[in-house]
Amino acid sequence: MNIGFVNIYAFRPHVEHLFYLSLLAKEAGHGTFALSCPGSSSLCYPKALKHSPSLKECAKCLVGGVLSYPFDHVDFIGSKESSRRISDTEIDRLLVSSSATLNRVESQQEWHTPELRAARQALSANFRNTFHSAVRWIEKNKLSFVVCFNGRMDMTRAITYACETMGIPYLTHERTWFGDGIQLVPNANCLSIGALHRMNTEYEDKLLTSEQAQLAARFIASRFTKQNNLEWRLYNKDATKASWPTQTSKARILVLPSSKNEFAGHEEWVTEWDSNTEALDALFERNNISADQVVLRCHPNWSETIGKVAGTRSESLYTDWAKRKKIYCIKSAEKADTYDLIQEADIVIMNGGSSSIEAAACGKKVICLGPSTYQMARFCDSLLSYADINSYGDLLDSVDQDRILRSNLRYIYLRAARFPQYVPYVKAIATTSYKYFGGADPMRLINAAMSGELVADDTDFADSSEYEDKAVEQIKFRDWAGIMNSTDEKKKPLPELHIERRFGLQWVDGLRNKMPRGDR
């Protein structure tokens, strides 16, 4: 069969991952066809994010993108229409996520403001051209399925929408949370949580083996010791010691919100509330929570600029809410250690952020308002609607710490080595640098696309709780050194594969390693 591979942008390490996947397809005897952007004066997501001229951003994608790898057949995006039609209304709807992220808005009320409508209109020309080009590319090469980076942001969404319109299966790929392997999602963009939920449900009750429990525990320990260097972004690295800043005789509640703008318009992330603050109000009113019990810790990301866009909108939503409610607020730029606050809290309230991992590791009651990647894991109580909030039991009920710790370990292992694909063969050595190894089964890629189902990369589990018991005790006693010093079982080494750019372009990676990555 013929398989399409497309990554419009030159973001690291994603183009390299795409080429690796194309090599697997070739190994299985399939034809591989790539789609690239030759450069355009029209606006695209990176140009809008960084306020960069076309010459600069297009040069990056041409030199560092798909064309820099030896794909067999490459077609280009153009302005010619295709056999399919797409309306202005459809384009506007499909660009909601891109416009929300480019403006870093947190409230659904802002999605249809003149400013965000204008942002979508500015992106629409490239979106339309990409959609029609993808349709013509699929038809010309008689593609059976497509592998596409991300699938959420502007031009990548146009490609996956072309697949959907034509009834062509597709996989979106992204870098994994902890680094190793490649995240593949069938027939949905990188933010889809349906496949993750199904796998989480399947493995939530599966005991971990010794090696699995050790790996999951090390990821927890690496966060508390700030050695999680393979995660995409690190926050609070130079934090200062923090103690609980309010006086109260009642339960201490820590609110840790995170940005939700990327999820705008995504049907799996829809909530009944326009913003997370409305859900917080409903939960606190239902449980008679007073202001002196609550501390809001604004996300450190909001003090950072992504591209040329500051996080002012996100922070203002929460700081204004805290001021109205007379709630103590720690702003995003402050150095107070979030982990210290978690350990002093009784309850931690999230809206999908990854600090749920630390909160659960501390045995705290974790509540998430709205959908999340860990929605099906039992270390967290997920409240997805006002009805859930109103029917929730006593917020101050005690928790089963062992149950929370075990569920946390199993979830982390799921995200590190079950949900990602090709984990033994794609190894992160730095945030954007990888090594690749031979022996991977190409049919894992083919089957995921053609069946629309994702099979766990590691299906093993234990028949005894002894290994989890040990990890749970180490986490309870904060034995981070003991956990970090644990060693994996020695495995037979795999042959290394050398994934390289075209001849004469090997210098690109050395130069780009000195430059900000992705959306910086």
How would you describe this structure to a colleague?
The structure is a single chain. The chain is of the alpha/beta class and 520 residues long. 40% of the residues lie in helices and 13% in strands. The protein has 19 helices and 15 strands. The chain has helices spanning 14-27, 45-50, 54-64, 88-94, 96-103, 114-141, 154-166, 194-203, 210-224, 276-286, 312-325, 338-344, 356-361, 386-391, 401-418, 442-451, 466-476, 480-484, 507-512; strands at 2-6, 31-36, 73-76, 143-149, 170-175, 182-186, 253-256, 294-297, 328-330, 347-350, 365-369, 380-383, 426-428, 434-437, 496-497. β8 (294-297), α11 (312-325) and β9 (328-330) form a beta-alpha-beta unit. The longest helix has 28 residues, at 114-141. The radius of gyration is 23 Å and the shape is globular. The model has no long low-confidence stretch (mean pLDDT 94).
Itemize the secondary structure elements and their pairings.
Layout: E1 2-6, H1 14-27, E2 31-36, H2 45-50, H3 54-64, E3 73-76, H4 88-94, H5 96-103, H6 114-141, E4 143-149, H7 154-166, E5 170-175, E6 182-186, H8 194-203, H9 210-224, E7 253-256, H10 276-286, E8 294-297, H11 312-325, E9 328-330, H12 338-344, E10 347-350, H13 356-361, E11 365-369, E12 380-383, H14 386-391, H15 401-418, E13 426-428, E14 434-437, H16 442-451, H17 466-476, H18 480-484, E15 496-497, H19 507-512
Parallel strand pairs: 1-2, 1-4, 2-3, 4-5, 7-8, 7-10, 8-9, 10-11, 11-12
Antiparallel strand pairs: 5-6, 13-14, 14-15
Helix pairs in contact: 1-16, 5-6, 6-7, 9-15, 9-17, 15-17
